[in-house]
Specification:
This protein is α+β, with helices and mostly antiparallel strands. It folds into two domains: 6-124, D-amino Acid Aminotransferase, Chain A, domain 1 (2-Layer Sandwich), CATH 3.30.470; 130-296, D-amino Acid Aminotransferase, Chain A, domain 2, CATH 3.20.10. The chain is 27% helix and 27% strand. It has eight helices and 17 strands. The chain has helices at 26-30, 52-65, 74-88, 130-135, 162-174, 218-229, 241-245, 275-288; strands at residues 6-9, 12-15, 33-35, 38-43, 46-50, 93-101, 115-122, 137-141, 179-183, 189-192, 196-201, 204-207, 233-236, 249-254, 258-265, 268-269, 299-301. The strands form two sheets. Strands 8, 9, 10, 11, 12, 13, 14, 15 and 16 form a nine-stranded mixed beta sheet that branches. Strands 1, 2, 3, 4, 5, 6, 7 and 17 form an eight-stranded antiparallel beta sheet that branches.
Length: 316
């Protein structure tokens, strides 16, 4: 992976190679952590973070759901992120904030273990590739079901839960697909391994709802608003597996993947990306890069303190 100069770790700016944890860190053993995936884009007005506040609010809520008291407020994390991007000299980047149970206890009831927080910013291209974003990807239905709300909390973006996605992603890659789509415990469509799912039929966008074991995606919410603003109908409901094969258009959304069309599912050819997918993809891309005036409120333009470059703040 590409690296940067610094990582923010528990309130200090640390050289990338020195941002380390103890081998008995609780989160390393049990996955007790929550995180976000956020992107900063280069715009005509300078670097801008997409829906920064919404992501950090979700981080805070995920932490609360898993009994992780965050030692920093969303506002403090936002300012640290802006300054980190500035110090790393990045015009665009991927942003990974992570809060996790640190070193201090290996018991399952580990409220005495501290909650550590890091933020990393680094260059990272479109998750499923520029070719996939342009031409569409091939996906397969996973044999692994999405985690159930009866066992874990799908609405939380929790580290340990992503073992579910890793199993599905690995299975898909070994079968020759770029991505997997998981079904929920009832056999309805849930989500991709790191994306939400949208089906287009008869000019209407259909996406799984909150009872389908989905993460409430911020990109998903953005696309829903854009689609409605453009005059398209949007439905949140159960989606049968066969509806993916019968879709007029099919696409996935997520911070890492952005908006990527699906051209084939389980060997069923859906054809080239459709008109509705392209129209929404174009408007979404404009929103990301500050070209859509109506969505400028989604962008957090970088404004850092005048002391951002003081070397005394950098841990050596």
């Amino acid at each position: 992976m590409d690296t940067a100069d610094l990582i923010w770790q528990n309130g200090e700016f640390v050289p990338w190679e020195d941002a380390k944890v103890h081998v008995l860190t609780h989160g390393l053993h049990y996955g007790t952590g929550v995180f976000e995936g956020i992107r900063c884009y280069e715009t005509e007005r300078g670097p801008a973070i997409f829906r920064h506040g919404d992501h950090l609010t979700r981080l805070e809520k995920s932490a609360e759901l898993y009994y992780l008291p965050l030692p920093y407020s969303p506002a403090e994390l936002a300012e640290a992120t802006r300054e980190l991007i500035h110090r790393n000299g990045l015009a665009s980047c991927y942003i990974r904030p992570l809060a996790f149970r640190g070193y201090g206890s290996l018991g399952l009831f580990a409220t005495d273990a501290p909650v550590d927080v890091i933020i990393a910013t680094f260059p990272w291209g479109v998750y499923l590739g520029e070719d996939g974003k342009r031409d569409g990807i091939r996906a397969g239905i996973s044999s692994w079901r999405s985690i159930s709300g009866e066992s874990l909390i799908p609405h939380a973006k929790a580290a340990g839960q992503y073992l579910n996605s890793i199993l599905a992603k690995t299975e898909a890659q070994k079968a020759g697909y770029e991505e997997a789509i998981l079904l929920d415990q009832h056999g309805h469509v849930s989500e991709g391994t790191g994306e939400n799912v949208f089906v287009v039929r008869d000019g209407v966008l259909i996406t799984p709802g909150h009872t389908n074991a989905i993460l409430d995606g911020i990109t998903r919410a953005s696309v829903v608003q854009i689609a409605r603003d453009l005059g398209y109908g949007v439905e949140e409901r159960d989606i049968a597996r066969a509806e993916l094969y019968l879709a007029d258009e099919l696409f996935l959304t997520g911070t890492a993947a952005e908006l990527v069309p699906v051209r084939e599912i389980d060997g069923h050819d859906l054809g080239e990306p459709g008109e509705i997918t392209r129209v929404i993809q174009k408007k979404f891309d404009d929103a990301l890069h500050g070209r859509a005036e109506e969505y400028l409120e989604w962008l957090d333009f970088l404004q850092v303190s005048t002391g951002a470059d003081e070397p005394s703040k950098v841990k050596s």
